[in-house]
Amino acid sequence: MTMLIKGSMIYDMEGNAPWVGDIYIENGKIARTGEKLDVQADEVIEAEGLVALPGLVDAHSHLGGFDMVNTDNCDFNEMTDPVTPDVRALDGCNIHDKCFGDACKGGVTTMCITPGSGNAVCGLAFIAKTAGKADIHELVIQNPAALKLAFGMNPIGQYGSRNQMPMTRMGVIKVMRDTFCRAKEYMEKKEAAGGDPEKMPEFDAGMEAVSLALSHQIPLKIHCEQFDMLTAIELAKEFGCEYTIEHAWGSELYLSELVEGGGAINYGPVGVPTGFGELTHANIAEVKMLEDAGAHVSIITDSPICMPELLYIQAGEAVRKGLSHESALKMITINPAKTLHIDDRAGSIKVGKDGDIVLFDGVPALDVAAGVKYTIIEGKVVYKG
User: Which of 113, 124, 128, 336 stands 20 to 30 A from 137 (CA)?
Assistant: First the structure.
């Protein structure tokens, strides 16, 4: 199957100035780009007057696992134990959840879908397209993609009410550190066994999951904000793990520490209630402060907690707060693709990458009325507005 998108204003996110041209997609991949391409296609989209971006990438969501109508139904929080590293978001993800359609409507073509934050060690996240197949497993780009951890009021609120550790911030980090130490010992025993089945430790799925992070196969994805971010950085440093800071409200107080720590920042959402506890520093202006300080920043929605369209709405708010338009668009395309290590497939319009394109009827993050007209995943229209 082939598709030709003709005459749009292309923001390719490859460092080029916006330009008017065509995008030719063949067998799900971008095959050619250029001005007035002389090609035949099975489907042609006349896109004059529209703006083309790579499909938007959301580095943090809970799509298909949270029932926002009946909050008792939450398949992404296995809150029977504060340590559940081996549960997989993929196994609880409902592809028929209407939120997948909402993501396409919002121009989001790729998401990192993660367990909730009810536990200190929450489980394994995965990366997937938001449409195109009837089976969630066929949408997967990478599984597992990260080990989710959570600091702060989420695990404290859940287990403190049971008078069970962790009921304090001291308890949260102890639970994490103890888990990582057990996993390290488990790995050392496996190495010492030298492949001898008789000497191998008993298989432990939880320790296997943590071992993926300790051996640098996947990063830690750490839910934290305000001063918990400093504790998160110390934990990652202690065990030599790659990590990302998720949410990062209150970053302006810790800019140098966040940059020196080296982890990418997945900021947001700001469309959450503010005025209590850890949410009092949800300020989109912090993304500019972080970028100015030298951090690698992406904007996230936490959908379906917030609507997927909030991805480009927040980008616009960041521009209003002084962030450059180019940087804002990077934070919802190529930056999260790099953070998720999928920039060989997503995040920019480039020959060889997946044919994921979103067409707007204005310039997103600049035109307040800009909305999605087409969302295309691997050369197939999955939403038309």
Answer: 336
